[in-house]
Amino acid sequence: MRRYLLALLAAVSLNTVADDHWKPFPYDQSAYDYSGDKLREAWPRLTRGFGHDYPFPDTDWVVTTATRYPKALELTVTGNTGFTGKPEEAEHYAEQLQGVWRLVFRGDFAEAKKRGLALGVGGQVPAMFAQVVYAMFLAPDQAEKHRLLEEVISYTDQAGELMQADIAAQFGRVYAKARLAEELSVPVVLKRGYTSQIPAELDALLAKQPRQPFALALYGGYEAGVIRKVGKLVGKMTYGVSADQMEQYFARSFRAADDLPIGHYEYANALAYVYGDDGQAKVVEQLQRAVAIKPINAMEALEVAHARKLLKRQEQVAQR
């Protein structure tokens, strides 16, 4: 068991702590306190975007996960995690991991990355989740945003089977690729292989968790993004995307969870990409739904704020 737990914490050359001078979360954090037992109680709602029953990182999770992935034994602890591999130390490790998730939900993203990476592979999921959120909403410019998203992809690819098996880690990687594909030129996207990787990774993720709201909404957004760049005809013939499929993915996402701000503003963006001015009324409707949702964590607060900005722009356009 000692070797299994050592493997869980192996750093895989990812033991560098965060030295990022990230901007602080810009809104009131008092509503996002998940100290003590509050985290376990709220966990199903906090992680509903990842689908049903995303596992709570308690002591049993630490031991079970380590046992389930024996190839992780090939990894060696190369960073100073403060964990020696003794089974009785699993509880302390779990408490540290839960603390990282609390930082993520509270909006202390830089500290979440730092503490998460200091825990090795086991802490990388919340660390990279924090980085994705920061990149999307708080990065100072597009170049930094792209650098951070590319780093998420690199970290996840290097982390081995433990990360490949975690649906949150899988989503974070494909989400980063999809956001990059949306903003990079078509030749760059093709060169990186994103046009084949993104649907393949989403298909694999949905095969494990068919009702994951995040993945379903991302798939719909991806198809809309392809249509935006190459048009409906080329999109259908070359990449197999269509407006009908886009609509179906979002419908499935909303059936799984209708109270995620990101789902509604992603759908609003998709409608604008695919239908242009003809979809403006629906765009406004979806943004209004997004801003009406009361956020339960820092990420959702940033999503609602983003949706509010998009809604204001739409209202300004309508007044012209």
Automatic annotation (TrEMBL):
<protein>
    <recommendedName>
        <fullName>Tetratricopeptide repeat protein</fullName>
    </recommendedName>
</protein>
<keyword id="KW-0732">Signal</keyword>
<feature type="signal peptide">
    <location>
        <begin position="1"/>
        <end position="18"/>
    </location>
</feature>
